[in-house]
Amino acid sequence: MNKTREYILSRLSASHEPVSGDLLAAELSLSRAGVWKHIQTLRRQGADICARSGQGYMLNSEVFSAGTLKPLLTGQVVGRCIDVLDEIDSTNREAMRKAEQGAGEGLVIFAERQSAGRGRLGRTWHTLPNSLACSILLRPQLPPENVPQLSLLTAVALHEALADFAPDLRIKWPNDLLFRGAKVAGILTEMRAEPGCVHAVVLGFGINLFAPTDGWPADISQPVTDLASICEQPVSRLELAARVLNAVDHWYQKYMQEGFSAVHTAWWRAHAASGQAVRVHDGKAYIEGIASALDLDGAMLLQTSQGTKRIIAGDLELI
Prior knowledge:
The chain is an alpha+beta fold. It contains nine helices and 14 strands. The radius of gyration is 22 Å and the shape is elongated. The mean pLDDT is about 90.
């Protein structure tokens, strides 16, 4: 979006009172007619901006854009640059393409629609209207073997950010967030690395904000839900996105300064199956046991009748 129009949206979004055209013109070094032309363009693009005689302009409804989101961010890294796209194949793929072109740490990409959204194990992630599909580019100075910890960090951050909307929200190993057994959000972390060196990490996640009016896609095999249905009221995408990005930045700073311990503790506390009987399908067969611990690589440790089993990947189910 044009930088001037981003500024106008940001200015109107941050104000609870009308903002005069004279003030906007002075702040932007434009004429009032120039401001009016930008307002007209924003209206054509869908922004609900009203003009109050003798007072100025007001934004009547929420506009989700980089310009309206940035003022809500408090982090040090995440959100340094924000792209909000109408449609892309995959936000993770786009973030990795940007990384290969030299994009800096903290780039955030949102998409209204994904034509090839992905989950774990090659599964499809459906980007539904008014959901939140996002990828964050990081360039941490970490050995590649530690990168799975960043996926756990993302789960902790999402759990923290969504807790006010869904108090019973729980993390399910390895990458889902559930509300009373129904999936609300999923995470997909990817990296580019060579032995001993990480070049780029992309933290991708999707959050269900509203149930689709025509029902959930038929190929979704597990129970799913959305935040608006959980809290029985509309959810602001702008507020939620800011909460999530601020939480990811907070936990990322804490992790880089203090290590994995605090993330590990928070994750285990929020995990739905900590100390519970579970079964995990590892791609070949089910393994049953007690979810006894999470190791530093993000693997689940199951206490089974044959001893402790270390599960690197799989689908976990509560028994």
